[in-house]
Structures are given as structure tokens and as C-alpha cells.
């Protein structure tokens, strides 16, 4: 990989060899020890990765670490990330796609798995480029309302709404519940239709990580159809049980959420 390139594709053996060389056995979205291999099988797998890297001139016979500085830096970022953003995007008819954005020591690397056993790493230049990249991956319009349409539910109540909305016999009861939460019949019906037949689903989790453990996390889930898009947000104020806030959500809500998270965690 030349110094001008900011993107590289690695097979699973190559990636795991490089992670192991840096002393890491866990990256967000993948654990080196999750396959239950014997030590002999793991050694064979890592050697396979090393031989592929040598054949691609990304490694020499005598060195354990890649000679290419960009590749070494990208592996270091995903191995020791202190911040990670996980985006799961589901598009009707196309399945789900996972995007993992890792931050470490003022560097950002996007990690995706375009096919089974294949990993794509791409360098993101700065937080502004990261926000633009995320905004491009979340194909939502801005939602501007004259008055805010929202309601609050517990996690259990929301799960009951999800499960019962798919049952015709219980849909009327869900509509009635949503009316008690302040939604009009029109908005309640739009909410249910987007919930049970979404054309787009988004799950975005922002994690602060130390020693492979997330010690702080915030997340939002979004579902949308052609008529409306709704976000399920954690409440700012603590409650017992914890409450979720649900309201029409657009890209104009997502971008400030990401910006605030990055700023609070000193990503610059």
C-alpha cells in the first residue's frame, strides 16, 4: 500500500495476525478468541495471515509489524481505540450493514466487513469528515415540525408496542395507548406503520472504551418508511425504570447528537 492510499482490504487471517502482533485480541465487532480454536489451530491461522501479508509485500519475513506506516497506524487505532461509534444500517431488500468507527490518539479509522471474512479499513481525516461520512450513511431528511410530537415510555413498554403492533387484534389497543401519550390518530398510525414495515432502520451506538470495556454509552434507534421517520432516544433525566423518548427524527437531530458526543469525549 503506497503512502497516498488511505484504504486497504484485509482477509480475516491477515487482520488477526496484525492484531495479534500488536498484542490485541479484541476489536469492536470481532474477538480473536471467540472462535474457540485450539492453540495449534490459532497458530496455523495466524501463520496463514502472515504468509498472505508477505506475499502482498505488506510484511517481510523478518518483521512482525507492517513496514507501511499507514497500515500500522490503522491497525493500532482499531486495536487500542478509546472511542467507537457503531452504525448498523438496514435497508429493505438489502439486509443490514455494519460500520465501525474507531478513534485513538487523534486518528479515526472506519472498519467494515463487505463480505464474510473480508475487512475494509479506511482512514477518516478528522471529526468533521467523520460526521459527514455518517450523515451520508444515514439517508434521512430533516424533520421540521411546528410543534414537537413525542412520547415517553419504558423499555418494557416500548417492547410491548413493538410486539403488539404486529398483531391486528392488539393494534387498536396500541393506538389508544399512543393517543393517551398525546399523539393524534394520524401520527399514531404513521408511527405504527413505520415501526412494523420500515424501509430503513438505523442503530447508532457511541461507546467510550477502556481495557476493552465500554464504560460509557449512548445510543439511538431509528425506523422509517416513506411517510415518516421516528427515533427512540435515551432520556437525559434519570428515571426508574429508565425512560425512552420517541419522536419524529431526521438528520437534523442525528448530527447534533454525534457532534455533542464527540465534543464531550474530546475527539478532535
Tell me what you see in this structure:
There is one protein chain. The protein has helices spanning 12-21, 39-55, 69-80, 127-137, 155-165, 168-180, 185-196, 251-264, and strands at 7-11, 26-27, 30-31, 83-91, 95-104, 107-115, 118-124, 151-154, 200-210, 213-224, 229-234, 243-248. With 268 residues, it is α+β, with helices and mostly antiparallel strands. It has two domains: 7-137, no CATH class; 151-249, no CATH class. It has a ten-stranded antiparallel β-sheet. A two-stranded antiparallel sheet has the order 2-3. It is elongated and about 70 Å long. The model has no long low-confidence stretch (mean pLDDT 88).
Itemize the secondary structure elements and their pairings.
Blueprint: E1 7-11, H1 12-21, E2 26-27, E3 30-31, H2 39-55, H3 69-80, E4 83-91, E5 95-104, E6 107-115, E7 118-124, H4 127-137, E8 151-154, H5 155-165, H6 168-180, H7 185-196, E9 200-210, E10 213-224, E11 229-234, E12 243-248, H8 251-264
Antiparallel strand pairs: 1-7, 2-3, 4-5, 4-9, 5-6, 6-7, 8-12, 9-10, 10-11, 11-12
Helix pairs in contact: 1-2, 4-8
Amino acid at each position: 500500500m503506497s503512502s497516498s492510499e488511505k484504504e486497504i482490504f484485509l482477509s480475516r487471517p491477515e487482520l488477526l495476525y496484525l492484531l495479534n502482533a500488536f498484542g490485541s485480541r479484541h476489536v469492536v465487532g470481532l474477538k480473536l478468541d471467540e472462535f474457540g480454536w485450539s492453540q495449534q489451530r490459532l497458530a496455523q491461522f495466524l501463520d496463514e495471515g502472515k504468509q498472505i501479508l508477505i506475499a502482498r509485500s505488506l510484511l517481510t519475513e523478518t518483521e512482525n509489524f507492517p513496514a507501511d506506516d499507514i497500515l500500522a497506524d490503522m491497525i493500532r487505532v482499531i486495536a487500542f481505540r478509546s472511542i467507537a461509534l457503531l452504525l448498523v444500517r438496514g435497508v429493505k431488500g438489502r439486509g443490514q450493514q455494519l460500520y465501525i468507527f474507531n478513534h485513538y490518539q487523534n486518528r479515526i479509522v472506519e472498519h467494515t466487513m463487505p463480505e464474510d471474512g473480508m475487512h475494509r479499513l479506511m482512514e477518516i481525516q478528522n471529526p468533521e469528515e467523520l460526521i459527514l461520512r455518517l450523515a451520508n450513511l444515514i439517508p434521512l431528511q430533516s424533520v421540521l415540525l411546528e410543534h414537537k410530537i413525542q412520547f415517553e415510555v419504558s423499555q418494557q413498554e416500548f417492547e410491548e408496542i413493538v410486539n403488539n403492533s404486529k398483531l391486528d387484534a392488539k393494534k387498536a389497543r396500541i393506538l389508544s395507548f399512543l393517543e393517551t401519550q398525546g399523539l393524534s390518530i394520524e401520527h399514531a398510525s404513521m408511527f405504527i406503520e413505520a415501526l412494523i414495515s420500515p424501509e430503513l432502520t438505523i442503530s447508532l451506538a457511541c461507546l467510550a472504551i477502556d481495557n476493552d470495556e465500554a464504560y460509557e454509552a449512548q445510543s439511538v434507534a431509528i425506523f422509517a418508511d416513506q411517510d415518516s421517520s421516528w427515533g427512540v432516544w435515551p432520556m437525559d433525566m434519570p428515571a426508574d425504570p429508565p425512560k425512552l423518548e420517541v419522536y419524529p427524527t431526521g438528520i437534523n437531530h442525528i448530527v447534533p447528537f454525534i457532534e455533542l458526543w464527540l465534543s464531550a469525549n474530546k475527539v478532535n
